[in-house]
Specification:
- It is built from 3 helices and 3 strands; from the N terminus they run αββαβα.
- With 96 residues, it is of the alpha+beta class.
- The chain has one domain.
- Strands 1-2-3 form a 3-stranded antiparallel β-sheet.
- A hairpin with a 4-residue loop joins strand 1 and strand 2.
- Helix 2 runs antiparallel to helix 3.
- The longest helix has 21 residues.
- It starts with 8 loop residues before the first helix and ends with a helix.
- 17% of the residues are buried.
Length: 96
């Protein structure tokens, strides 16, 4: 899902299903996730976990729904955006 505007806190909370936690992947790429996702035993989010691994290595797993916020392009996040768009297309194709 792409937002035409910067989502409000309420919209972000609705998307991640709870309180939001912010993680800066780099200066222009941010991840918003459910603060209590692991405590709630939400399912692993493979797309978000793979993005985490690209920036920090296999140090953690991301669970539940997330929001990516990207301000301007960097080498890493350009690849991330392309990968996320491809992942979204494949996920849609599997659902049809």
């Amino acid at each position: 899902m792409r937002w035409a505007h910067k989502p409000t806190l309420s919209e972000m909370q609705a998307t991640v299903g709870g309180y939001v936690e912010h993680v800066a992947l780099d200066g222009r790429t941010h991840l918003w996730l459910n603060e209590e996702g692991k405590l709630e035993e939400l399912p692993v989010n493979n797309a978000a976990s793979n993005a985490w691994h690209c920036y920090f290595g296999p140090t953690d797993m991301i669970v539940g729904n997330v929001l990516f916020e990207i301000w301007g392009r960097t080498r890493h996040n350009t690849l991330l955006v392309e990968w996320l768009e491809q992942h979204a297309r494949l996920t849609q194709e599997e659902g049809t």
